[in-house]
Give the backbone structure.
Amino acid sequence: MKVGGRLRALTMAGMVAFGIGGLLLHIKIHPLMNDGELVARNLVPLLGAACTIVLIPLLFSTGRHSHWAQMLNLGTVVAGVAGMTKLMFEQADGEYGLFWFFVGGTLADSLILLGKGLLGQMMFEVDYDRLAKGGWKDRGGGAPWWRFMHLPFSSAHSAMRLCAVLSLALIGLGGGLLHFKIHIPFDPDEGILGTYLVPYVSMPFTVFAVPLLFAIRKSAWAQLINGMTAIVGMVVMTHFMIHRAGGEYSLGWLLLGGTLADSFLLAGKWSVGQMMFEADLDRLAKRDWDAVGRRPKWWRFQRLGWWLIHLALIALVYAVGAWIF
Amino acid sequence: MLKHIFWPKVGWFAFHAVVIAAALALGALVDFG
């Protein structure tokens, strides 16, 4: 498989996006200082986010240190899931139930964190063959200690596919559960609230359709749905955030008062899908693009610029609908 | 088959008209109360 710089760039961008999103979410939920005193254990997520934003992308950037990057990435995932689950049990106060497990606790955040771990695993699998061939395989030495992280698939491509499918299903499920925590689309007085139905309508797509389409190699369709749900989520959540501000805007509102963190997580989700799509594009390119006399397929254009233009235009059209009509 | 429907003929414009209408409608209908 071609070791594309695009896959590397997408991994790094995704890590930065997940890191910033997670950092903002943690600061929003538990600030570092409480009544003028430093809460030491609240430093842990800040440390993890710093690794995810700076160190892990840097280590992935070279292509020669991906095992260290993924080791560190796994560390942040294990620490995060363990710490958040501990917090969840502390806060339950002995009262456990289905609501506590799925909605009241930190299950959603843990699922998204696991999805981030799998993003790093995708890049590690891309680099694994090269690390192995230039290293211990050629030198005839024993397997290195980090070989345990490698998934036993016949190709990096298959391993990536499993990671992408799992990652997107987990992130979709986690994102869906997060919405349950914030708003349910029903009010005893007003009945069904159409506005708050939006994430629940997109949930079956992101939890089932997108991973399924990636699994059966319909990556272009999968990424189209994945990216569009991310765009709709960002646009509508930003509208929500502006509505909630009530005209009082500040830096604090932008960073912590709204849904910026969630938009960053959606950007991370987009990069997971885009990475799998671009990996498949490399494979399909050989078969379709290079064939003389073939017209390019529609999904050829579904790249970074295409996405940015669609994000901007969909936001613009949505804004016209929201403020003029 | 898809390229014949979508690129860049009547189908392409029709498809984008539907998408634009959907985005406009979403913006107009969303009401956070």
Q: What stands out?
A: DSSP finds two helices and no strands in chain B. The radius of gyration of chain B is 13 Å.
